[in-house]
């Protein structure tokens, strides 16, 4: 991006540093697939290490901001208006299985609104950055959501709940309704990247239930700053509170929201 703010530079530095640590550990994960115990414990340690790196970088630079991270307790800041919302490793299942599709997601919230976002995919060396009012960028290229209008030409992403989640039947109903009307649905396993890809115009839309603030905070700003729309699946609710999200290009946002609301 042309002129990143001091906060965005701090976020990029933290994401890249954690990325280096996660890449080193990822190379080890492949070797562990064949062991009887599997790479589970190793990956949770890699995840915690990444969170620690990000936390140290961010809190050293901005000691008064609050903290909400996937792997630790929420810590309120002495500045109650600002907090970091961090997922040190989004796409953990992919990482665990040696699939190179995972990311670090860092958002900065001010007075309840996300104002800066960084989503970093070290395996592809793609860094997605947005600042409220200044647009969204990927490796210095300005991002725009797709301009497609016909649903039959569109690709959508979602997350399919796993582990016996009660949300599964609704998602299966969404898939039954949407699949025949589109060019395809993807489940790539990293919500932060799903949203970043909507911002980049790679996906035309994305929806998911049972998703947490650290999965979506940075990605939502990327989509909005790239000209896309975002909203909750549950009518009248907040996205963080209802743990649900729809994000899409402006031409299909209402249609997609209407379809998934019916499930
Ligand atoms: C998960 C991924 C996945 C989404 C889940 C998330 P994690 O995050 O983003 O794509 O479907 O809802 O929990 O556990 O890999 O950080
Ligand atoms: Ca996540």
Architecture overview:
With 263 residues, this protein is an alpha+beta fold. The protein folds into 2 domains: 6-142, Fructose-1,6-Bisphosphatase, subunit A, domain 1 (Fructose-1,6-Bisphosphatase, Chain A, domain 1), CATH 3.30.540.10; 151-262, D-Maltodextrin-Binding Protein, domain 2, CATH 3.40.190. It has 8 helices and 12 strands. It has helices spanning 6-32, 40-61, 92-96, 168-178, 191-199, 213-225, 239-242, 253-262; strands at residues 66-69, 82-90, 103-110, 113-121, 126-131, 135-138, 141-142, 155-158, 184-186, 205-209, 229-231, 244-248. A 7-stranded mixed beta sheet has the order 1-2-3-4-5-6-7, with helices on both faces. The protein has a 5-stranded mixed beta sheet with strand order 9-8-10-12-11, sandwiched between helices. A hairpin with a 2-residue loop joins β6 (135-138) and β7. The longest helix is centred in the first third of the chain and has 27 residues, at 6-32. It is globular, with a radius of gyration of 18 Å. The model has no long low-confidence stretch (mean pLDDT 95). Bound molecules: D-MYO-inositol-1-phosphate and calcium ion.
- What gyration radius follows from the Cα positions, in whole Å? 18 Å
Share of helical residues: 25-40%
CATH architecture of the largest domain: 2-Layer Sandwich
Straight-line N-to-C gap: 39 Å
Based on DSSP secondary structure assignment, what is the total number of beta strands?
Answer: 12
Please state the overall shape, judged from the principal axes of the Cα atoms.
Answer: globular
- Quickly count the domains: 2
Annotated CATH homologous superfamily of the largest domain: Fructose-1,6-Bisphosphatase, subunit A, domain 1
Average of pLDDT: 95
Largest sheet: 7 strands, mixed
Q: Report the bound ligands by name, code or SMILES.
A: D-MYO-inositol-1-phosphate, calcium ion
N to C succession of SSEs = HHEEHEEEEEEHEHEHEHEH
Strand order of the largest sheet: 1-2-3-4-5-6-7
CATH class designation of the largest domain: Alpha Beta
Uncertain residue ranges? none
Continuous helix count: 8
Q: Work out the strand percent.
A: 15-25%
Structural class: alpha+beta
Look up the CATH topology of the largest domain: Fructose-1,6-Bisphosphatase, Chain A, domain 1
